[in-house]
Amino acid sequence: MKTVYINSIGSISSQKTFDNSEFLDDIISYEDNVISVVNPSYRDYISPGDSRRMSKGIKMGIVASKIALNDAGLETVDAIIIGTGMGLLKGFEKFLKALLDNNEQFLTPTSFIQSTHNTIGGQIALGLKCKGYNFTYVHDSISFESAMLDAKLMLENNEANVVLVGGVDEIGDYTAELHKLIHHIKTEKVHSTKLLKSQTKGVVYSEGANFFVLSNERQNTSYALIEAIKTYNTLGNININKVVSEFLKENNLDIETIDIVVLGNNGDITHDYFYNDLSAGIFNSTQQVYYKHLCGEFNTASSFGVWLASNILKTQKLPEAIKLNTIEASKYKTILLYNQYRGENHSLTLLHKC
Amino acid sequence: METLKQELKENIIEQLNLEDIAIEDINDDDILFGDGLGLDSIDGLELIVMLDKNYGIKLTDPKKGRAIFESIKVMAKYISENRTK
What ipTM did this prediction achieve? Predict the structure, then answer.
């Protein structure tokens, strides 16, 4: 089996991450319960004629993918695989509202086009003139990991040489209001630096697009190699420490081999115990990192975690703002990422320095 | 008629999401499709729905749209002669 490398990255998030020459040089703090992305100049990448039928999610996906492709010096790829938990919410909300307001009459095509989950992958393929494998995974908080796993299998088996993989989700205003009502989004505004001390239900909701060019051929500029990905729909009564220990054993690794563990803590008092159990458990002597105070929570927020870990491995720098504990790793060679949302759809991603 | 033309320009810009175009940029005689304003077949569908929703005009033959949507001036004349609301 071939090794799979992360050869380039492209990110649009609530931080200024669209410039690959920087790595969280200036952290942006928020005091809110819903935070949007820092928008790049979409017009620099998409013509006005093309962009008028694109919702924000599509624009974010196209620009993040173009940044990643430019970073890798590529014009096109063999396959495009997208993960999105909620798809294009804005178009969906608009289409559904028109459906209800007009008694199922006067339905127009544009918002329908903008409401389907696989439009993002389709629009990217149209732009790249890529007629290869095009797939979209929709599976809550493991949507991105499912996409990445598919790409990894293709590359390992030499079914493709270069695959574009991305995680995209956009904020839908109406959806956000509904999620506040059921306390899946915090009802109070929280400062970024106090997210994990909030002691309240729900998360700070957000959006973003993180894209990666994966390849079975290493470049001098490669960020990391992907050793393993595993997803779990539910864990039942099994303790997370046991799950992670078994995962490491399957990959012939022990806890000491992990230099940094990247955790997806989102400040939700009802579900952060999974992360806290790991922090206080098998990783109590490991350097711990968190990131959702920077990018917020959305179904593909873990793709920001992979962006973060890739940058740490390539630059060998670790920004102060993401440190969760005071332990300092002696080297940044192997990083394990763990994520879950509302106690379900857990993922483990193992990255290694090139 | 002038009010209707103004209204049509506003609706076209908003509903077709013509981000870079202002009302002043659209002349009454400008060709809307193809080389003119650059509208396409999906926009044609949007305009057919707009005629029905805003003016009560049901365009059963989409081919007719080609002539009706030639310009703002032609559209406004057709609407004022056929509107039911």
Answer: 0.75
Q: pTM for this one?
A: 0.93
Look up the domain containing A275 and give its range.
226-352
Residue window 65-94, chain A: list those with CB within 8 Å of chain B. Answer: none
Q: Report the residue of A108, A112, A114 to disrupt the B interface, i.e. the one with the largest count of B CBs within 10 Å.
A: A108
**pLDDT of A31-46, one tens digit each?**
999 999 999 999 999 9
b/e sequence A158-188, b meaning 16+ C-beta within 10 Å: eebebbbbbbbbbbbeebbeebbeeebbbee
Dist CA A123 CA A332 (whole Å): 37
What is the Rg, in whole angstroms, of the alpha carbon atoms belonging to chain A? 19
B17–A53 CB contact, under 8 Å: yes
What CATH number is given to the structural domain containing B26? 1.10.1200.10
**CA dist., res. A263 & res. A304, Å (int):** 11
CA angle A69, A73, A74 (to 5 degrees): 60
